[in-house]
Amino acid sequence: MSKLSPSLKGLINAPFARPGQTPAPRNIEAVYTKIADEARERKYGEKPWLALSAAATFTLNSPSSLEPLLTLASSRLSHSSSPSSSTSSNSLLESAEFIREIGLKCISFNGIPRTINSLNAFRSFLSSAHPQLSSSLSTTPSRQTTPQNIASVHARGRQLWESVYTPLDAKLEAKLAEAHPDLPVHILGSHYGPLLSDPSGERNGLGSVGRSLTSVVAIACLRAQTGVGPQVLSHVFGLRKAVEQGAHVSEFSPAASGAKEGEEKKGEEAEGIERLASDEGCEWILKSVDAISEAMAAQDGQGGGGFATPMTGRKRESKL
Predict the structure, then answer these.
(1) Beta strands in the chain (DSSP E)
(2) What is the model's pTM?
(3) At 208, is the secondary structure helix, strand, or coil?
(4) Which of 58, 180, 199, 281 is the most exposed place for a label (fewest CB within 10 A)?
């Protein structure tokens, strides 16, 4: 294989192109804690704040910030559960799998490279800081498309698409096809079916995000990357439609500690999603993502890893 010239390698890694990841800001744990505290005060539940925080962090390309996020999430999860229903190690594993699943879904909004780099860095952190946990992470894939399940994958993708965009789902699909005939084919066939919708049945310990929290992930990713206001608006409505359709009611499994306690917890989480879908709740999602973005921007001084931030500090040598 031919070698790259020093000048080409230097240009690839030029500082103005921001080729690396955003380091964790010194105050990021405080930012996450404030968001988590507000979620508890407003009774939104424990998962929404983690979903939006993880999604924004993946978008802003700061995998090292996932480390304090995991620590905080697992600590709060273990404290909110009785000793008989969850140990600290189980809380850590559950939080890690949830964060990994959110990172996977971020592909649909951020593209593949950031998810690859962030999930690899997150796994490396788990292997060094929590080797026992690392060995407990699921290694069995759950989203393979086969001749036997292709029809059901397509059907669940179509169902999610209609759920998010009704009553404009058909009109939107036609508009996308006008832009490029394969655009809706790819969006539905590669994202809404295999990735954004969740497979049914046992998934060997992998995290589950669910319909309503997938909308939260979408809002957080799109808000953090900036420049895509119409899509942020669409997924805010998507969150509201999840509640209107009652999807949130069946998304939260009862705790393993007992039927009565589990049903109460399930009801509290569902009610939290209802509050989250209100004007006040959606404003809180956006402002929480903004707080994370501001912390990242202050860290790197160039916009916090957002997509729409122009490269700065570049010496313009071209005379074209």
Answers:
(1) none
(2) 0.91
(3) coil
(4) 180
